[in-house]
Amino acid sequence: MGSVVFENLTDEARSRLPRYPMPVLHVGQLAADSSLQGRGIGSLLLKCAAERAIEASETVGCFAIEPIADSDQAFDWYLGRGFSSLNPGSMRLYQGIETLKATVEKA
Ligand SMILES: CC(C)(COP(=O)(O)OP(=O)(O)OC[C@H]1O[C@@H](n2cnc3c(N)ncnc32)[C@H](O)[C@@H]1OP(=O)(O)O)[C@@H](O)C(=O)NCCC(=O)NCCS
Fold it and tell me: How many domains does the chain have?
């Protein structure tokens, strides 16, 4: 667990958040073996992370999932899965808990 790093946010993103640290679930080193990519494994792992974040939101509080993409390819993959950046210069992406709940319910 961590929290949104306020110093790096745009004014527009700041204006949409409360003034206290918002807890987030970090997702690190999510990967599928190169021989098995494109078969839905990454999406399944992301769904698993979403379920854990939802669980955490009901106990200790969790505002969003926050992957830190380590390549442009990974960044674009998260964008394609509905994540967005709160700072154009950052590799941190976010998806809010309410959106995650709707996505998990649909899957
Ligand atoms: C990123 C990664 C985890 C995705 O896992 P995966 O199992 O290949 O992904 P999935 O099969 O679940 O998803 C494939 C979908 O993503 C899309 N996609 C793949 N690469 C993409 C990219 N660069 N930009 C946008 N969409 C992309 C595919 O078109 C496909 O779309 P569809 O579901 O509509 O058919 C995997 O490619 C990987 O391990 N990459 C190397 C490690 C890495 O970058 N990890 C992230 C660290 S932060």
Answer: 1
Provide the whole-model pTM: 0.88
Q: What is the CATH number of the domain that holds 30?
A: 3.40.630.30
Q: Does residue 20 have an active-site annotation?
A: no
Beta strands in 42-93 (DSSP E): 64-67
- The domain containing residue 17 runs over which residues? 2-106
Structure tokens at 96: 């809010």
pLDDT of residue 15: 84
Q: Of residues 78, 86, 95, 100, which has the active-site annotation?
A: 78
The helix or strand, by DSSP H or E, that contains position 24, with its residue range, turns out to be: strand 23-27
Q: Which residues line ligand 1 (CB under 6 A)?
A: 30-32, 37-43, 67, 69-71, 73-74, 76-77, 80
Give the Å distance between the CA of 78 and the centre of ligand 1: 8
